Amino acid sequence: MQGTDTTMHLLINIDVPDLPAAEAVYAQAFGLTAARRFGDGGVELLGAQAPIYLLRNAAGTPAAGDSRRDYARHWTPVHLDVVVDHLEPALERATRAGLVQETDIREADWGCIVRLADPFGHGWCLLQFTGRGYDEITT
How far apart are CA 86 and CA 101, in angstroms? Predict the structure, then answer.
């Protein structure tokens, strides 16, 4: 019977108002590379564990419910964490690419974290695990 595979395949979709600018930011900040292009409306970026799809949608266009897209810095309960081997050079690369550092680097029992915002209002975190990573705080 088809469709019995229970493996979940994650695709990450990020709305952006300027597709070429977003592609340049994410390529420089995170080392992602463009794969497939979907006309002038989207691009698939590879280099992470899941493909990231940048989708061009203008500010003010319909989003969820009665909401309109707004690319000013906004809060959402969903954001992306990028795990890196060395936080400081990754942070430098990300800020050079156009992301804005929103917090100081914070140390935790599991490693270090810093929060960033991309030029399109989306939140990102850079994480560097140390020791056993999250296993340091599990019970």
Answer: 16
